[in-house]
User: Fold this.
Amino acid sequence: MTVIDAYRERVRDGALKPDPAQEAVAAVLSRLADDLNAAPPGRDGFVRRLLGRRNELPKGLYIHGEVGRGKTMLMDLFVSQVTAWPKQRIHFHAFMQDVHARRQRLGGDDVIGSIARELAAQARLLCLDEMQIVDIADAMIIGRLYDALRGNGVVVVTTSNLPPRELYKDGLNRQLFLPFIERIESTMNVVSLDSQRDYRLGRIRARETFLHPATAENRVAFNELWRDLTDGAAGKVDVLEVLGRKLTVPKAAHGCASFTFQELCGEALGPPDYLAITRAYRTVFLSGVPKLKAHQRNETKRFILMIDTFYDAGTRLVALADATPENLFPKNQHAFESRRTVSRLKEMQSAGWWGNSAAIL
Ligand SMILES: Nc1ncnc2c1ncn2[C@@H]1O[C@H](COP(=O)(O)OP(=O)(O)O)[C@@H](O)[C@H]1O
Ligand SMILES: [Mg+2]
Assistant:
């Protein structure tokens, strides 16, 4: 079956909604899958190179677009339809970790060449999900690695939230990275997936995002929401600069950041910190929100300020709390302000909120 047929079949089954932008990208993937299946790779990229036939290697593909547009879904459909090439499909982040591990192990003058030969021996079609370059260590080797992979007859297909020109934007030593962008543009077809819908949000919208109380079951739901919104990323520590100070983000991935209530409202943070968070992330996961006690004045004030800041910025909130918004605040305290916070918290879990804030971003 071709990729486009497989796509249409899923639409017919009702598993996917029809989407012309996806169909256009599926057609491009379909052609590539057909070309690959019709011409299985030669045994040795080195021979290919000696014979000067390097240009015969099919072009790879670079699919970019906003989150939730179906890039990963389409790439997986493609991977399943390529049968004649030894293939590997891996998340870009995991791929780079593997590359760095090999680098340590192999060493030597031509370590990049050695890594590429090892990888080519395993797979000649390399599908990398979610290429993003945030790390200088990755930025400094990815170009040479990519060239060495192609030299060894490896075709790369990748998805990314960014077009090639935006990769590693404002990164350190970016000029050393630019040749890689040129190589992407000359050896990969670059296509953008311009669907109008964020299908992932569709899934979230049907779910509750202010979870209470903090039962084991709700904890699982909270973690599932993280998985859904980050494509299963474990998340990494991140550091934001706020007025010359450093604010540690314990876990971040894909525009999502996760904190405990204690970390955001139990410490001496203020509006600039909350604002910095809204600038860096579109979604905040907040666990451990307690029923506030009358003596927790500072925590209560910070919580109110923080929700106001998130609200103004259109930030999406996933919370795991001990009680409903109405029952979080002590009676007769901060009555006016807490009423506003309660109402905002309710609005922030509405379908419209999740849809709207996506439109702004
Ligand atoms: N046409 C569609 N109809 C229904 N659901 C879709 C459609 N396209 C994608 N999805 C679903 O939406 C979610 C997000 O898609 P995904 O491929 O992960 O997006 P991306 O990789 O672009 O962020 C997935 O669960 C996917 O199965
Ligand atoms: Mg994806």
Summary: Residues 71-72, 129-130, 159, 231 surround magnesium ion (ligand 2) (CB under 6 Å). Residues 357-361 have pLDDT under 50 and may be disordered.
